[in-house]
Amino acid sequence: MLGVDTEYYFHKVLDHAFAVNSKIDLILATGDLAQHPTIASYQRIAQKLQTYDLPCICLPGNHDDLAQMHSALNVGQISCNKQTLLDNWQIIALNSQIPGKPGGRLEKQELDFLEACLHAYPDRHALIAVHHHCQTIASPWLDAMMIKNSAEFLAVLRRYPKIKAVTCGHIHQVMDKQVDAIRLFSAPSTCFQFEPGSMGFSVVDTAPGYRMIHLQQDGGLETAVYRLPEALSGLQTKTGPY
């Protein structure tokens, strides 16, 4: 895509993560797993993820086909589970997809599910995972696609002090913000990155990467972004929107 072998870099990013980190408990894939989704493409993703023999949570982005994901990405320890319990934490995965649209929204059933999880395990700290971002990033073309009812979403988050962070995908760049006591961050893309602060669609050849998150027993967390040591190859920066 745009001249980049995206599957090659998906593999390289995962291999790098496991090479430089001594202990990984879970893989979290925050959407846009396929640009033009097919069962075969999701099966190839599953084949790679299964090599690590670890739980992996997959959630949909605006480019994904949720039915195909459920068909191909619920195998072994790979799942599209919306709630995962991990020590004294829970990871809650929300679907912000508006089918056929690039932007995001959290429907009432998603917000109700979020609150049900929090009520069911009031003593557990919570990490929320969702594809679209819920705070502006000073990039107008991307901010037009953020969660449309972000104010409603944030109002729910503020009612539950056990929610410590929200992680997202979608924006192909690093974000790290604080809203009250809640940390909001993103992961870089495993392929090309979008230019930070750009007014319109713009890609840059910053190396692909990933985010490591260490959830601590007391509800604190540590997180850092890692990038491949090799440069991104083949990117066609003059191409129009993808």
Name the descriptors:
alpha/beta; 242 residues; single chain; 6 helices; Purple Acid Phosphatase, chain A, domain 2
- Main structural class: alpha/beta
CATH architecture: 4-Layer Sandwich
Low-confidence stretches: none
| Average predicted local confidence, pLDDT | 93
Name of the CATH homologous superfamily: Metallo-dependent phosphatases
SS strand fraction: 15-25%
Number of H/I helices: 6
Strand order of the largest sheet: 4-5-6-7-9-8
CATH class: Alpha Beta
Using the CA coordinates, give the radius of gyration.
17 Å
Q: How is the biggest beta sheet arranged?
A: 6 strands, mixed
Per the CATH scheme, the topology name is Purple Acid Phosphatase, chain A, domain 2
The helix/strand series, from N terminus to C terminus, equals HEHEHEEEHEHHEEEEEEE
Helix coverage percent: 10-25%
Shape: globular
> End-to-end distance, in Å?
8 Å
Total strands: 13
Tally of structural domains: 1
Strand and helix map with partners:
Layout: H1 6-20, E1 27-29, H2 39-50, E2 56-58, H3 66-72, E3 78-79, E4 83-86, E5 89-93, H4 108-120, E6 125-130, H5 140-143, H6 150-158, E7 163-168, E8 176-179, E9 182-186, E10 193-194, E11 203-204, E12 209-215, E13 221-227
Parallel strand pairs: 1-2, 2-3, 5-6, 6-7, 7-9
Antiparallel strand pairs: 4-5, 8-9, 10-11, 12-13
Helix pairs in contact: 2-3
